[in-house]
Amino acid sequence: MHFVVLTDGLRYGLLHMTSISQTLGDNNAHVQELKRLFLSSNVDENQCLNSDGLFLLCEKLKLSAFATNITERVLCGSDVVDFYDFKERFVSYLPEIIDVSSGAADPLLTRAQDTARSLGYGDGQRLTRYETRLLCENISELVQLSIIDINNLFERADVERSGRISLQQFLAQYRLQKRLSAEVHFISDSFISSLNLFEALDPSNCGTIDSHDLLEYWNKAGLRIDEGVTVLKESGQPMNGSLDAVYLSGFLERELSRSTSEAPVSVKAAIISLHCCIDNLRCMVREGESRAEHLQKQLQLGNQRRTLLIEELENNQISIEQGYEARLRETEERYRTRCLQMEDKFRFDKREIQHEVEQLEEELSRLRQSETSTRNKVVLLERQNSRLVEENREQSEALNQMEQLNRQLRTELSKAMQLRPVEENTQLILYKQKLEIVVAHNKRLREKIQDLTASQKKRSKSSDGEPLTMKWSGAFRSQVMLIRKRRLAKGDTLSEMDSEPESIFVRHRRRKLLKRKERKKRHERIASRLFVDDSDELDSSKTVRNNSGSIGDELSRICNEHKQELIAVRQTAAKTLAEALNDQQKQMTLQLERERRHWEVRLVTEKNQLEKSFAEEKMKLMNRLQEEFDAELQRISSIVNRPENSNMAEHYKQQIKTLESSLETQKKNYEKRLAELRDRFKSCLHSHNNIYAPNENRTTNFISLLEKYRNAGPSPSDSLEPYASSRSSLSVEKHSQTGSQSLHKMLVNAAARCEKCDLTEMRLRELHRTVIGDHTLSESGIEDFSSSAGSIVDVLY
């Protein structure tokens, strides 16, 4: 036999968990202790236990004997289990293996499991009907069960009608039947007591009563004073003073048992019925006492559960308050952190805005510089445009002159050809070559004029919008400036126009390169013709140099104005930005303050509402528990401390009075019927005497004999006159006819044969014993008394 002994704290924890398993929470101390043991038993990264961890946990809980069953029940086919599933399954399975009130395992279940293992049944195997019988035959507590009992238990346990049950189901049905049989046996026990029959006269339960009170009590019950005195004399008790109630009760019980053994069946039935009634009343009293004790225990358990619930309620209240305080602290910390974050964000935004302002200022300065450079470029372009226009005009005039010269040369050529067509062929070829050169140059000039006109149009359009030079790259701009400087330094010549790369404003085309001598001749011709143009250009450059001083002063003045304007714009932007930042900071501070006040009010409101709802629920629960406790206490008090004038006592008294009146009525009826039978006997005897008319001496002898027996004193059994009268009346009622016939035959024989007086005397004694209440007629019926007794029993029940 294996016993599992738990520690006091663990046993109290298991008792608390199984008694109030519906209100278990994570804040419960016993649940936290169980969780601590659970987490210390080799849990994995997901806070779960496998079979090895559950075996280790069972060793810590001192449940190693049930480790296999607990593991199978808790895992339910899985590999691991978390704490919440383990708690629910473990608490539901714990009452099947452990008596949590004492902390010990069920010895019958342990022996049954060991026996099942020895018979070859596996742990947790469901048993058939035959296996259950075989298991009961090998267990000492279950050997006395018959096959019918085992089948009945198996049928009640097999709820699913699968033909197999578990060992725990069978033992649960066995305990249920055993408890019911014990209750039935308790109810059917007899509580016949022979201690004190006069408890009504002995309220102090001292065992002594007053003789006068006893005689008065008997007189009220229907016993005469002289008969009571006779009983006291026979029992040896004094007539005056105190009496020994226990001794007198024993004497009366002995006399009653002696009279019962000699009394007829009807009297025996009456006495047995009274005993049964008294036993039933005592059984009811004993059952009421046991129920009162049970209710008292339940009341104690209720008080304990009430204390536990109050403690649990207080713990829950404390945990809820702590939780709300923690949540309030977390909220404050969170909002404080949020405020710090918002302040950091505002500072960061401020720095970013300042950085953007600096970037804008730099961009503004850069734009001012680009504007200045653009204006300078515009001025240069205007100058270049004017120069190009002037060149265009000059080139047009030169073209007109060359055309006029061409016309003159043509006329001269025609005249010369007419005069000397053959002599001057060589000179004609030279003129043709010059003409071709001039035509080609004229063509290039026309194209250049068209390009200049198109570029001027583009330049007029670009001056209205963004300048074209903004889209140039640095390398391209430097190359253009280099070409421009070189052109300004050297001046335009025919060789450079023919040999150097094309301008950026002229589209690229393939040209026929000239030889060095031809370029030299071409340069000389063009230089001689454009000498005047060069002199004019030098004069215009001098004029530009003279005017550059005034333009520089104007540019310096414009730069100073732009600087002052930039400083004013910067100061205005800084002031506006500071004011905007200050306003934004004030608005955000006010908004933050409003939100903080709103959240504070909301938190206080929610806290008050939760506290109010919790207090209301607490008061409702306490009021309900108090009402249930008061009702149960009142009911138990009414059962335990029931007054004598209560309804039940009145009911019992009424039943006793009804029984007494019924017995008195039956007694009077039996006495009346007995008197009628005596009258009938006398009349019958007188009629027989008149019919047969015997001799005088025989009649005298017979009459004297009858008078002798008629005047005979009562027997010792006359002390039981009520029972004797009832019994004699019942007996004579059914045998009156038989007795009269036998008496008739006796009188005939007495008249015929006087020598049989002894036999007649014997028969008369027998008749007298029958009338007085002897046991000769033992087969007499008690239909009337049994029916009335049955009605009385029905009333009692």
Automatic annotation (TrEMBL):
Record field: compositional bias (Polar residues): 725-738
GO biological process: microtubule anchoring at centrosome
InterPro entries: EF-hand-dom_pair, EF_hand_dom
Protein name (database record): EF-hand domain-containing protein
Keywords, in A-Z order: Coiled coil, Cytoplasm, Cytoskeleton, Phosphoprotein
Species of origin: Dictyocaulus viviparus
Coiled-coil intervals, chain numbering: 343-419, 578-680
PANTHER family: NINEIN, NON-CENTROSOMAL MICROTUBULE ARRAY
Residue ranges constituting the EF-hand domain according to the UniProt record: 145-180
Location of the protein in the cell: Cytoplasm, Cytoskeleton, Microtubule organizing center, Centrosome
Keyword Transcription regulation: no
